[in-house]
Amino acid sequence: MPIFTPFQSPQTKLRNLSALLLLSSAAWSTVLSTQAFAQAPRVPQLPQGPQGPTLPNTPNPTTPLPSTTVPSNQNPIPQVPVAQTRLETLGQLIFTDRNLSVPAGTACVSCHTAGTGFASNHGSRSGVPQGSIAGVLGLRNAMSNAYNSFIPPFSFQNRPQGVVAIGGHFWDGRADTLALQALGPFLAAAEMNNPNAESVVRKVAAAPYAALMRAEFGNDIFNNPTLAFQKLGVAIAAYESTPGFQSFSSKYDAFVQGKTALAANELRGMNLFMDRRRANCVSCHAMNPNSKDPKDNLFSQFTYFALGVPRNPAIPQNANPSFFDLGICGPTRSKPALTANVPNTTSIDDFCGKFRMPSLRNVALREAFMHNGAFKNLSDVIAFYATRNADPRRWYGPAGVPNDLPAAYLKNIVNDRPPFNRPANAGPAFTAAEGDDLLAFLRTLTDGYTTSANAVVPATPSITAPAANPRSNPFGGQ
Ligand code: HEC
Ligand code: HEC
Predict the structure, then answer these.
(1) Residue 72: what pLDDT?
(2) With contact defined as beta carbons under 8 Å apart, do 118 and 111 qualify?
(3) Ranges of each domain in the chain
(4) Does residue 327 have its Cβ closer than 6 Å to ligand 1?
(5) If you measure from the C-alpha of residue 357 to the centroid of ligand 2, how many angstroms do you get, rounded to a whole number?
(6) What is the Cα 313 distance to its own chain's centre?
(7) 270: Cβ below 6 Å to ligand 2?
(8) Rounded distance, CA 203 to CA 217, Å?
(9) pLDDT score, position 305
(10) Fewer CB within 10 Å: N-end or C-end of the chain?
(11) pTM of the full predicted structure?
């Protein structure tokens, strides 16, 4: 299957659009009403400078690399994805337009910078982003918008181990497609804060790239603001589906392709990641180093779990002790209806508190982790997996009971598999030293790695990036 096959027909996308528009405005007004602006903690405002850190001048991935002179870069960083078609270019211009927020200054790229793992909290250190209004914080940690073209629409599936929820964009899966997802942030009060679709379209009609919009969607596109707004999503989705957002250019990918070797600690970390009796990360963050099919190495099944992530007290809504973010059960979506394939012994309440598993690609660059940004550093995430069961007081305070779900939903927290099925007295699932190995392995998932001339290289083929067709499978074959 080609990598960039859309999961849905354009008709389906359009059908879902009206649903999302209703949902986003209703949902975000709920968020707004529960979040008094006065209570929002002030965070230092960052100067609105050019996007992210200056990126090193790494070679364009579409140019063949000389086979022996490429140095290995130990601290890779993903490049800013490049648009190629007119539609993708339009999408990139919209994605980076800081004039499309109220007040002006915040673009999609403010919270989705390549250099910070395609996610960023826009100057906030609270684990959740600051929107266009200085000091107003959102409810959830920014997610990466890379590798998103692989995410299927939201659905319930009946599997041998039980009913699972899978797919959809956002931590709660409320948008089925990238084109729909892209329309949410424009109107979200804690993100780009526009009052309505028309006002966004008016700004696009006055933008330097308005002519591109007309060329792509017809001369009278701006006469129909509802349609024009939908088309912004279409253009952004096209840009987000470009190879640069799913470049499979990490050291791990080079390893899978036989172009480099992993260091001893990285290899130990990978083995632990895949050890089903211990860390067992692979049972959820699916990967297979023996497969050259990119789909087998997304590091997420995009299914939903309640991990028992500790509460993040810096989230403004959490000042209210009876407020809980229940993921699939809201507050930023209405509870989805269970579908006919789901046995009637299942209740939607079984999914409350569950969040969609993100891909771990580029995770080492992220500023905060988990849906609520409770962790600010990756070693804490790893320590949490090792010791959630062994040392609950470390994570939840003296009571030692998961503190970010109401009592009724504690039963939804995953405990049926390693590393979460251990009694407390069995000790950590893995040692701190092994955790360091896991960290080293997760760092191999950062895109922008260039293959070392000294690495173990098979005789053929020589080290060349895919040259002929930038859309070709980065692993070759297929
Ligand atoms: C103020 C920061 C901010 C801005 C600006 C912003 N986002 Fe996001 N983005 C987030 C947060 C936070 C989430 C997760 C929200 C949730 O799950 O409720 C997210 C989620 C996403 C996702 C879902 C990723 C996944 O794995 O499902 C995509 C795609 C995305 N944003 C693209 C965009 C686009 C396109 C724009 C501009 C139209 C944009 N974002 C503007 C913070 C931001
Ligand atoms: C039972 C399934 C499951 C297992 C096992 C699992 N994870 Fe996760 N992982 C998730 C889910 C679900 C999330 C998102 C949870 C949330 O935000 O509430 C997540 C989030 C993460 C994140 C944060 C990503 C981000 O962008 O915020 C990291 C890092 C991570 N996992 C690493 C690991 C490692 C390392 C292991 C093995 C020690 C592991 N996971 C085992 C399901 C799992």
Answers:
(1) 72
(2) no
(3) 11-51+73-443
(4) no
(5) 6
(6) 22
(7) no
(8) 17
(9) 98
(10) N
(11) 0.84
Residue among 138, 179, 125 at smallest CA distance from 12: 179
Q: Closest-lying ligand to the alpha carbon of 365?
A: 2
Mean pLDDT by 10 residues, the chain (478 residues): 37 38 35 30 34 35 41 85 97 98 97 98 97 96 97 96 96 96 95 97 98 98 98 98 97 96 98 98 98 96 98 98 98 96 95 98 98 98 98 97 98 98 96 98 96 44 32 37
pLDDT of residue 31: 31
Query: What pLDDT is recorded for position 452?
Result: 54
Among 141, 284, 304, 351, say which to mutate for ligand 2: greatest number of ligand atoms within 8 Å of CB: 284
Nearest ligand to the C-alpha atom of residue 204 = 1
Ligand nearest to the CA of 175: 1
